[in-house]
Amino acid sequence: MDIALLGGRVIDGNGGPPLDDACLLVRGREILTVGPRATTAIPDGAITYDVSGRTVLPGLIDGHVHLRAYAGADRSDFYLWSQATFYEEQILHAARNARRALEAGVTTVRDAAGARLEVAIKHATDQQLLDGARVVVCGFVGMTGGHGDLFTPPAVDRRPYQTADGPDECRKLVRSYARDGVDWIKICTSGGVLSIGDESDWRNYTLDEVRTIVDEAHALGKRVAAHAHTLDGVRQALDGGVDSIEHGSSLDADLIRRMIDQGTWLCPTLSVSEQIHLSGAERGLPPAALHKNALVRASRTEAHRAAVAAGVRIFMGTDTSSILPFGRHAWELELLSTLLGVEPMRALQIATRDAATALGLGERTGVLAAGRWADILVVDGDPLADIRILQRPECIQAVFRDGRLLVDRGLRSARATLS
After folding, report:
1. Statement to judge: residues 130 and 273 lie in one domain
2. How far is 187 from 355, CA to CA, in rounded Å?
3. pLDDT for res 292
4. S-S: 292 plus which of 35, 65, 92, 193, CB 3.0-4.6 Å?
């Protein structure tokens, strides 16, 4: 069935001037054409949607989330919930979070610490068993006593993140994840903020281990993301040849130059550190985590401003989880503007075209163009005039994923009548 979106203002994701009074045609999963309404022929029998006065843009992409997070109506303990809840129950929360992301205009997410549970959500949404954002899965490879491992107290035997120590164990775990169907591999090269008992400047993995993980992942067609908050952590990740730096809270001129030379992506995740700053104490986070977050915030903005100014490749990620609830993804766009000085059009590119390219989907989504997947967001208002409207549910009028209208907050449809 053909679909036509008529009369809207199209922002295609490439950064060029918007196209007013446009026609966007969809056939099946893909976009058929994008052009002026006056000169575009609408196929017989197409379903038409009048989107006059609205903005049409690519679905947003959040490149750093954690689907396995509490999605209930009341409040959960951030640390206890994952340890006290059956995996079978956690998958229901993950499915709800994938749907909640879609309702907020996000058509693709990358889970930054996944395993079989997240692969199951990926398959279920791809096969249309569930309606939710497309899921790109990072299989998590972490060291014993590292950032991922220390989300769980030492005395607890059930540990959600698999560990591997030494090059041989690391290589084997990468192969296991590849067998399970993950898309990426995620590692840590520094300590973290919310893990308990470590410091952000702790080394995670030796260079030999990092190089082994990257070598095996690349050999199996998987990209590698590295959590890194410190200069040494970023340096270790770059020495190992990773594809993206997550957080990158400390950067100097040499590391920025190396990221540009190596083509390494930066995923700033501004939202999570702001959320911890604003509500972490209220949520009951331990003083050590609040202190580590304060240190991260102190260095992060200057580092990211320098990276943006130098031309480091950047894509959107929020680190959405139980601390930063699903549905608030577009806050990152506002923070890119207010903290880093990024113009709205550029921020939209970071959240669409650039994010798709970083995730390895640049030929399929992230841009409104013929032959791309029909991942489309229809917004009531102009995000170029006020990027914050993307945070308002009432402004998200419609969300299409793969040509299917999965979120509809007021579009009217009718069969096209041609003379």
Report:
1. yes
2. 19
3. 94
4. 193
Nearby residues of 162 by Cβ (< 8 Å), 6 or more positions away: 115, 140, 141, 142, 173
Joined together, the tokens standing for residue 251 give 């950067």
Regarding whether 72 and 46 lie in a shared domain, the answer is no
Cα angle vertex 110, ends 331, 254, to 5°? 80
> Position 204: which residue type?
N
Q: What is the DSSP string of 84-151?
A: HS-HHHHHHHHHHHHHHHHHTTEEEEEEEEE-HHHHHHHHHHHTTSS---EEEEEEE-B-TTSTTGGG
The Cα–Cα gap between 61 and 63 comes to: 6
**Angle subtended at Cα 411 by Cα 409 and Cα 416, rounded to the nearest 5 degrees:** 160
Neighbours of 291 (CB within 10 A): 13
pLDDT at residue 415, as a whole number: 58
pLDDT digits over 127-170, tens only?
999 999 999 999 999 999 999 988 888 888 888 889 999 999 99
Q: Using CB atoms within 10 A of its CB, is residue 176 exposed (0-12), middle (13-18) or buried (19+)?
A: middle
Which run of H or E residues covers position 310? helix 287-310
Characterise 4 by phi-psi region: left (phi > 0), alpha (psi -120 to 50), beta (else).
beta
C-beta separation of 94 from 118 below 8 A: yes
Tell me, what amino acid is at 49? Y
Domains: count for the chain: 2
The reported pTM is: 0.96
DSSP 320-377: BSSSS-TT-TTHHHHHHHHHH---HHHHHHHTTHHHHHHHT-TTTSSS--TTSB--EE
319 and 174 share a domain?
yes
Identify whether residues 6 and 133 lie together within a single domain: no
Separation of CA 285 from chain center: 24
Could you give the CA distance from residue 288 to residue 285 in angstroms, rounded to a whole number?
A: 8
Single out the residue in 305, 329, 353 at which a domain terminates: 329
